[in-house]
């Protein structure tokens, strides 16, 4: 005797004039769009319930197809891109530097750190990156501006989502990081002087004011932008005297070449020739017109954007 396999069904109202008395509910078998996973509800709700926004009218010049060295090549116009990225505002990209972290663990950690006023919608993507959609703009600004954030002693990088984002990249190019100047001579403990010294490492974001008052002894602590794709500044010459720079929570630093992302025994630059550093205008990666404001015990850059 064959075993009967039950199916989930629902009956139509008798008033409906149909040729079938029942239909199979296949809703549970339908794939969930990636936007629905991120936003936590139907994309129809996110895009104001308009079905027309899901239908893209392709105009002349919107799509270009060709071959480059025998490889199929397709490009889309800016108009198409703007349609595709609707609803991605207030979406941040998160990545924990130095180690992997599970979805639930990260979700609990950021809720405890940021204490958002509304629900966050998070989705994990490849290479340890996560997308987080904020419903409240103030919550989004807090996560973006009030860093740097650390989890398990590692930096949690937060950056706005853009079309240029590439999850294949091992880590973000520019991050905020705490640095220290150990043994800085006491006569240099002046807010403006320390700021000028810190700018030699990277664009200053925050200055720990306790160091300016010598409450913690003779070392200076500040937050600067660090470009992880370039050589890290390990020392500064102040009036001819060598001053070492110490980076907090950046554990994977090669002490041979000065780069982040590997250790010295795995350095691929060990047999390379001498490296000549080209001076790069900081405006390429750091926003202009950044003003410093004093808030509590730290001096903060109110216009921080990674």
From TrEMBL:
Q: Which residues form the CCHC-type domain?
A: 254-267
Keywords on record: Metal-binding, Zinc, Zinc-finger
Protein name as catalogued? CCHC-type domain-containing protein
Among InterPro entries, the record links this protein to:
At4g02000-like, DUF4283, Znf_CCHC
Asked if the record carries the keyword Zinc, the reply is yes
Taxonomic lineage per UniProt? Eukaryota, Viridiplantae, Streptophyta, Embryophyta, Tracheophyta
- Identify a single GO molecular function assigned to this protein: zinc ion binding
């Amino acid at each position: 005797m064959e075993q009967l396999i039950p199916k989930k069904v629902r009956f139509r109202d008798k008033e409906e004039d149909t040729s079938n008395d029942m239909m199979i509910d296949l809703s549970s078998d339908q794939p969930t769009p990636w936007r629905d996973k991120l936003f936590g509800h139907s994309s129809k709700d996110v895009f104001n319930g308009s079905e027309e926004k899901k239908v893209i009218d392709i105009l002349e010049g919107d799509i270009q197809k060709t071959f480059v060295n025998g490889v199929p090549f397709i490009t889309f116009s800016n108009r198409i891109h703007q349609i595709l990225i609707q609803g991605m505002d207030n979406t941040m990209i998160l990545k924990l530097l130095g180690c992997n972290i599970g979805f639930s663990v990260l979700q609990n950690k950021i809720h405890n750190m940021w204490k958002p006023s509304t629900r966050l919608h998070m989705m994990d993507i490849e290479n340890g990156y996560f997308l987080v959609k904020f419903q409240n703009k103030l919550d989004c600004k807090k996560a973006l501006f009030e860093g740097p954030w650390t989890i398990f002693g590692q930096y949690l990088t937060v950056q706005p989502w853009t079309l240029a984002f590439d999850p294949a990249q091992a880590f973000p190019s520019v991050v905020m990081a705490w640095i220290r100047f150990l043994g800085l001579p006491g006569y240099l403990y002046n807010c403006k002087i320390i700021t000028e010294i810190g700018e030699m490492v990277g664009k200053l974001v925050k200055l720990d004011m306790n160091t300016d008052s010598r409450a913690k002894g003779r070392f200076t602590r500040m937050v600067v932008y660090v470009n992880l794709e370039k050589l890290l500044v390990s020392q500064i010459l102040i009036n001819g005297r060598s001053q070492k720079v110490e980076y907090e929570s950046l554990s994977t630093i090669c002490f041979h070449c000065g780069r982040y992302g590997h250790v010295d025994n795995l350095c691929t630059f060990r047999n390379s020739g001498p490296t000549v550093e080209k001076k790069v205008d900081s405006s390429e990666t750091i926003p202009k017109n950044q003003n410093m404001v004093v808030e509590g015990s730290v001096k903060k850059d109110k216009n921080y954007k990674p």
